[in-house]
Automatic annotation (TrEMBL):
Residues 13-479 form the Aldehyde dehydrogenase domain. Keywords: NAD, Oxidoreductase. This is methylmalonate-semialdehyde dehydrogenase (CoA acylating). It is an enzyme of class 1 (oxidoreductase). SUPFAM superfamilies: ALDH-like. Transmembrane segments: none annotated. Its EC number is 1.2.1.27. Pfam families: Aldedh. CDD domains: ALDH_F6_MMSDH.
């Protein structure tokens, strides 16, 4: 049985706590590895290692730090297939989806190559008699990220790339469900030239999380996961005087106006609702057709498409639409919520609960489910299902449709499909959601913009990646200076270069 430990000080380190968690192959249901769960002492050692390495890294000029990111991007492209295969084996994603996971993280690394520009401060000459004022952005020191199972490549890179490019050392606590790729990323960073100790990967459970939140050395924590845990991490981290950037659950609505291209809308819903088995925080889980005729037409378009979805392991080829859920517990939870929806009176138009694949009967597979006539008082509407389940909530008009995402406790992402510019503009202006798509079902911003939800989907003042990533992992120092006039002797005749 493979044992997965930690990555500390630039090398693999065996776990010493004696505690392990099983790592499954979701397609077969088999335990394929065991990952060590860190003790308080192991986490303390990793943090001390990071703290010792960080001052020299912070003193390295930003352009040289950016060159490490540049090399890291090259290595990610070189090892794309290997990373995707490892990701799919532990998570269950299809290979194209796993490559997308890596690529969306790679794009943030590409953005961080611009760290020298992003870290520039401001300067005011002659702010007073002989006085100049300037500001500089400086790293916080040691920072940490606690990342989820559903994007084991992308979200760790969203966290550690800007943090490290800004001069910090980083402690990564990834999900224990799919721990291999985060360690592979740390190996690549070392190969790219990152000094040992600047990126440490410590596997663990709640004990490791609490050790991060309570440690006085760690200055900031980034988290992605469920809302209850996001609230817990935010509260405990800020109570310890840390910066916290915590992103939680979602219930993403897509409104379909009567003038929308129905084929386009249906295809968008299929990909956004069932891709990655619905295990995405930006998955569309609620479709809101406006008007009965729109709803009837949408159901008619969706039903055969959902029934025709190709489900299977990542080894079945690139034309598989989605794979298994991540664990047996996740599968049981989703099936339980589907049963609850039936009890509450929703109409189950497509039932994928009995899906079984020959040779993979013990895998965590489930077919796509489609509910119609869902109402806002039902659990399947209020709860983030995190599975291949799409709920249709019918709205009589635009204002009722708009009120559904506006009134929901989550505010991660939303979309509207329409051909009317006035409607689209009104929607984008009024909606109280962090990320908005207009004829785009999953409006995840590119790396040079920022990602973040509103309401109970996000806790903290700054978003992930983009300029906010650098703001979160640095603090501003402002200097007021006055110097006597005078010139220094001597001349240099060779072109100045970075030293």
């Amino acid at each position: 049985m493979q044992k997965i430990g930690h990555f500390i000080g630039g090398k693999h380190v065996d776990g010493t706590s004696g505690r392990f968690a099983d790592v499954y192959n979701p397609a077969t249901g088999e335990v394929q590895a065991q990952v060590a769960l860190a003790s308080q002492q192991e986490m303390d050692a990793a943090i001390a290692n990071a703290a010792a390495a960080q001052p020299a890294w912070a003193a390295t000029n930003p352009q040289r730090r950016a060159r490490v990111m540049m090399k890291f991007v090259d290595l990610l492209n070189r090892d794309m297939d290997k990373l995707a295969e490892a990701l799919s084996r532990e998570h269950g994603k299809t290979l194209p989806d796993a490559k997308g996971d890596v690529i969306r993280g790679l794009e943030v690394a590409e953005f961080c190559i611009g760290a020298p520009h992003l870290l520039k401060g401001e300067f005011s000459e002659g702010a007073g008699p002989g006085i100049d004022m300037y500001s500089m952005r400086q790293p916080l020191g040691v920072v940490a990220g606690i990342t989820p199972f559903n994007f084991p490549a992308m979200i760790p890179m969203w966290k550690f790339c800007p943090a490290i490019a800004a001069g910090n050392a980083f402690i990564l606590k990834p999900s224990e469900r799919d721990p291999s790729v985060p360690i592979m990323l740390a190996e690549l960073m070392i190969e790219a030239g990152l000094p040992a100790g600047i990126l440490n990967v410590v596997n663990g459970d709640k004990s490791a999380v609490d050790a991060i939140l309570d440690d006085e050395t760690i200055q900031a924590v980034g988290f992605v996961g469920s809302t209850p845990i996001a609230q817990y991490v935010y509260s405990r981290a800020t109570a310890s005087g840390k910066r916290a950037q915590c992103f939680g659950g979602a219930k993403n609505h897509m409104i379909i106006m009567p003038d929308a291209d129905m084929d386009q809308a249906a295809d968008a819903l299929i990909g956004a609702g069932y891709g990655a088995a619905g295990e995405r925080c930006m998955a569309v889980s609620v479709a809101v057709p406006v008007g009965e005729s729109t709803a009837d037409a949408l159901i008619e378009k969706l039903t055969p498409k959902i029934e025709a979805l190709k489900i299977g392991p990542y080894t079945a080829g690139n034309d598989v639409d989605f794979g298994p859920l991540v664990t047996r517990e996740a599968l049981a939870r989703v099936k339980g919520l589907v049963e609850q929806g039936i009890k509450e009176g929703a109409k189950l138009v497509v039932d994928g609960r009995d899906f079984s694949m020959q040779g993979y009967e013990d895998g965590f597979f489930m077919g796509g489910c489609l509910f119609d006539n869902v109402t806002r008082d039902m659990d399947i509407y209020k709860t983030e299902i995190f599975g291949p389940v799409l709920s249709v909530v019918r709205a009589k008009d635009y204002e009722e449709a708009l009120d559904l995402p506006m009134s929901h406790e989550y505010g991660n992402g939303t979309a509207i499909f329409t051909r009317d510019g006035d409607t689209a503009r009104d929607f984008a202006s009024r909606i109280n959601i962090g990320m908005v798509g207009i004829n785009v079902p999953i409006p995840v911003p590119l790396a040079y913009h920022t990602f973040g939800g509103w309401k109970k989907s996000g806790f903290g003042d700054l978003n992930q990646h983009g300029s906010d990533g650098f703001k979160f992992y640095t603090r501003t120092k402002t200097v007021t200076s006055r110097w006597p006039s005078g010139l220094k002797d001597g001349a240099e005749f060779s072109i100045p270069t970075m030293k």
